[in-house]
Design goal:
557 residues; Porin; 3 domains; 4 helices; 53% strand; globular
């Protein structure tokens, strides 16, 4: 029996069980919902931009989610197809099947889920499973999850399962418990307080059988059970918020950390202050040997058990997002600060509609790693690795981003946004280009939006990136025309006019159009894609150069 058909038969079998059926309120209405997404790309040969040849000429990624709800019962499944995976996605995705299916039942304060599920403890420092279609990441757990609220103010969670590994499961088993406490609900003196206090704690363990790893002709003794623990606190008031989480991981020798026996830790702190027209936020993060995977030999983006939140701004324009930061789980010290201020409208400085000003600064350094002794190299395999102190940053800089944005509506129809970025990018560490010099770039962006009528809008974007490293200077422009709520058209070009190699001073042009009808959308894009990386939340995917036609269809029901 085909795997997809087998899963569907099992799903219908459980739903038809008499014992299960009697537990349902069949007077409750049934609801079926879902969504569909397809990306198909036709490739043409383009040796000028270094696009690899695609033998199939056309590649396709697609999925369909179906969710059935009736009373306290929920069931769902996802069908996926990669024939073959679009360039830049992991080739292990090749195939078609139903890798995600679950059933869930809630009774009062108790809920149980069997099958695939996504879960997060706190900020994710010890557990976060999620999927991101653009990155090709899905590390869902396949097993059992239980949630229980014994009293108001306490939420308990337990998970047990194996992670998805493309069309298979990881060899490691993941087990975890987590608890959230609302102190305002639990402590009578805090019941009426405007300051809300939340606390939480979690523990997680992975099990993987020992496998042969050798160093200097000696087989390493690897721990089969690795535990991690975390505690967190969140305090929020009328004008402020503070949150913090600390995580500790027992030694976990792996391919990522060169099989050292050092324990890991991470501390994440965030504080913010806000009032009408003004907000200030500051964050700090210390990460030390916190790669946590359910298979110790895995080096790709797959099988991450935890998530280390990045302290960098997510840029959206084409040139400002050219050098995104990838979180370094082996160690980093990061800081970020942001100020957002709105100048009041109907003032001489703010204008008739007010003026938005945002300033953001982030920096990431390596850890200051110190040798264990005079005879052991830093990070040497089969040792404790190195010594490091909390928030002790090393001299090596990984990333720095200073950016300012000023946005102002000039009148009812015209809005102008100006941005400036100053970047430092350690391309050796972040992208793995040994010997390449650090990139120092200045980027300017002008984004103009003009409303022609209530339904028609024009948008003009002009960008410039100046750098003496990597591929040199770039200029970019885009014109977009929107007819709400159905149509959009755009023409854009990125010109690498400053490339040190004159033969690579190329245009990366694109022509796009899209049509939306109710909850369905179809879009076409013709042109070139430059080589680079895309990152979401500090997790990145390499994107090779390509040229051709991209079709995207999305729909929900």
């Amino acid at each position: 029996m085909l795997p997809a058909i087998k899963h569907l038969v099992i799903f219908l079998f459980f739903f038809s069980l008499p014992e299960f059926s009697r537990a349902q309120d069949f007077t409750a209405p049934s609801r079926v919902s879902g969504n569909f997404h397809l990306d198909a790309q036709y490739y043409r040969n383009d040796t000028l931009i270094g696009a690899p040849e695609v033998n199939e000429k056309m590649l396709m990624n697609a999925f369909t989610n179906i969710l059935f709800t009736k009373g306290d019962f929920t069931a769902g499944l996802r069908f996926e197809s990669y024939l073959n995976p679009i360039s830049g996605y992991n080739p292990n995705l090749r195939g078609t099947g139903m890798p995600y299916r679950f059933i869930s039942y809630r009774s009062g304060d108790f809920e149980i889920t069997a099958g695939n599920f996504y879960e997060q403890f706190g900020n994710g420092l010890i557990l976060r499973t999620y999927d991101d279609w653009n990155l090709g990441v899905d590390n869902s757990l396949d097993g059992v999850r239980v949630r229980y609220n014994p009293i108001q103010g306490i939420t308990l969670k337990g998970v047990y399962g194996k992670q998805r590994y493309f069309w298979d499961l990881s060899p490691g088993i993941v087990r975890g418990l987590d608890a959230d406490f609302s102190l305002n609900d639990l402590l009578k003196p805090l019941n009426e307080s405007s300051t809300r206090i939340f606390a939480g704690a979690g523990m997680l363990s992975k099990y993987q059988r020992e496998e042969p790893v050798f160093y200097e002709n000696q087989r390493l003794v690897l721990p089969e059970n690795v535990g991690a623990f975390a505690g967190r606190l969140n305090v929020s008031g009328m004008k402020f918020n503070f949150s913090g989480e600390y995580a500790y991981k027992i030694n976990d020798p792996s391919s990522i950390n060169n099989y050292i026996y050092k324990s890991g830790q991470s501390l994440y702190l965030n504080a913010s202050y806000f009032q009408p027209g003004l907000s200030v936020q500051a964050s700090a993060k210390h990460t030390d040997n916190m790669s946590f995977k359910s298979r110790r030999t895995e080096t790709s983006e797959a099988l991450d058990i935890n998530f280390l939140p990045p302290l960098t701004k997510q840029h959206t324009h084409s040139l400002s997002s050219m050098y995104p930061y990838a979180t370094q789980p082996n160690g980093e010290v990061a800081y970020q600060a942001q100020l957002v201020y709105t100048i009041k409208r109907r003032t001489k400085v703010g204008g008739p509609y007010g003026t938005y000003i945002s300033a953001n600064y982030s920096m990431v350094h390596a850890l200051n790693r110190r040798a264990l002794n005079d005879t052991t190299a830093i990070g040497q395999r089969a040792t404790l690795g190195y010594k490091a102190s909390l928030f002790d940053a090393g001299d090596e800089k990984y990333f720095r981003d200073f950016n300012v944005e000023i946005s102002r509506r000039m009148n009812r129809n015209l809005k102008i946004s100006l941005q400036y970025l100053n970047l430092f990018y350690n391309i050796d560490v972040i992208e793995g280009h040994p010997g390449d010099p650090d990139v120092k770039a200045n980027i300017g962006i002008t984004d103009i939006e003009y409303r022609l009528t209530t339904m028609k809008t024009m948008r003009f974007v002009f960008e410039h990136l100046s750098t003496k490293q990597d591929n040199g200077d770039w200029a970019a422009a885009m014109v977009e025309y929107t007819i709400a709520p159905r149509w959009f058209f755009s023409i854009s070009d990125q010109f690498n006019y400053g490339n040190p190699d004159k033969d690579k001073r190329l245009h990366y042009y694109n022509i796009s159009m899209g049509y939306t009808h109710h909850s369905s959308r179809i879009a076409l894009n013709w042109g070139r894609q430059r080589e680079g990386v895309i990152c979401v939340g500090g997790v990145c995917r390499y994107v090779p150069a390509s040229s051709g036609l991209m079709l995207t269809i999305t729909s929900s029901f």
